[in-house]
Amino acid sequence: MEKSRVLIVGGTGFVGRRLVRASLAEGHPTFVLMRPEIGLDVDKLQMLLSFKAQGARLLEASLDDRSGLVAAVAQVDVVISAMSGVHFRSHNLTLQHKLVDAIKEAGNVKCFIPSEFGIDPSTMGDALEPGRVSFDEKMDIRRAIQEANIPHTYISANCFAAYFCPNLAQMGTLLPPKEKVHVYGDGSVKVIFVDEDDVATYTIKSIDDPRTLNKTVYLRPQENVLTQNELITKWEQISGKVLEKIHIPAEEFLSSMKDMDLAHQVGVGHFYHIFYEGCLTNFDIGEDGAEATLLYPEVQYTRMDEYMKRYL
Length: 312
Known about the structure:
It contains twelve helices and 13 strands.
């Protein structure tokens, strides 16, 4: 079967660059949107040129240039948005409305994957302020996609390992703790950790698969469904160090928000839902969803103990 032509928007970002590599590795004709707004960001430009050298095509268009964006979309079968949705960097989720409008006008796209890749926003109707803005914006995009009758797939990749695993889910650092570790509640809530490269691999696998069309694909690699306690134990076994555990009750954790800026308040709210409420694992996948490791058992996903060994 002929491989779909894939356009990746946000291809220089944390997820986007991995999607470009995965798409090329799977043999898809791969296009990357190059936005004039790149300006003097030489690192992004060099990355885009490296994609070109690897076989990707660069399509120049601005999200504010409707005709240029429609022309870019018209050249492909699948559009994947990897635009940033995190508050401690740029937060661009609402710009995807322009992409949705262009896809609707072009009329040829057989699958659109919007930028989600984390917690399933459809399960977060009771999320805390101010962090719920991320889920509300993602649901707004979903409604726009569905109202435009655009074929789609949503990707729920849970916790990116780089942000949650080696640091043992500590806020404010990406490195493993040396002496003490904060444990959320009793540390027994199940959480799902996924290697970012695996996120990209599963996403690209899904685009030509009729089993994923108009559904949510959940990434739940069973050996990476771990409690915080289990994650800490893995690190202690790998590193040979025993850490002092400091348990934080839910009320104390939430009260820490009051003196924080918006980005950190959003982070605290999301951590609360993940590590205290268990929002990643407290529901079963329904008929409108599918689980990636069952769909693609041939993918050898990275286990978290292997991931953490990089940090020794």
